[in-house]
Fold this protein.
Amino acid sequence: VINFSYKLKTKKPDTAIYLNALDALDIQPAEAIYIGDGNDSELNTAFELGFKTVLISQKRNDRFRNAESSKYHLEIKNISELINIINGD
């Protein structure tokens, strides 16, 4: 599901964005994986809602990046690592 915050008239980390995605997929948070780089406390909200959260580490300086204080279950360095996570490896 691709969710655009402007269509919901809100922005991360508002829970409405996450809940809208769950509704669109008709799933519970425990069935969802949220992947993010830690910006805007996005991972914390997903984590608190019960999503499995994955931090994707990227080498960059971003004034909005907040990965150090993010709550997440797994960390990856490359998007290609998601295949193993999805397959349960």
Notes: The beta strands are 33-36, 52-56, 74-76.
